[in-house]
Design brief:
Helices cover about 70% and strands about 0% of the residues. The chain is mainly alpha-helical.
Length: about 80
């Protein structure tokens, strides 16, 4: 399985939207710049583990759960 920036972005964006959060709010909760979050969601920037950890905490989930969702999304995108 290859690392897929677009899969990371889709998962983060879908989780953010499902929780009714704007990019401004999520980035503030995660302690990252909104532009950084935008680039992650668009697949244009690779998030390091610390950033994924912060995003997971801001979404009130375990980092391992976020990574598992990213893995599932990556596998699904490889199948199509």
């Amino acid at each position: 399985m290859q690392f897929n920036n677009k899969a990371v972005g889709r998962v983060v964006r879908d989780l953010r939207k499902s929780r009714g959060l704007s990019q401004d709010v999520l980035s503030g909760l995660a302690g990252i710049a909104r532009t950084h979050l935008t680039m992650i969601e668009n697949g244009g920037k690779q998030a390091n583990f610390e950033t994924l950890w912060r995003i997971a905490q801001a979404l009130n989930m375990r980092p391992s759960e976020l990574v598992a969702r990213i893995e599932r999304e990556t596998e699904q995108s490889e199948e199509t």
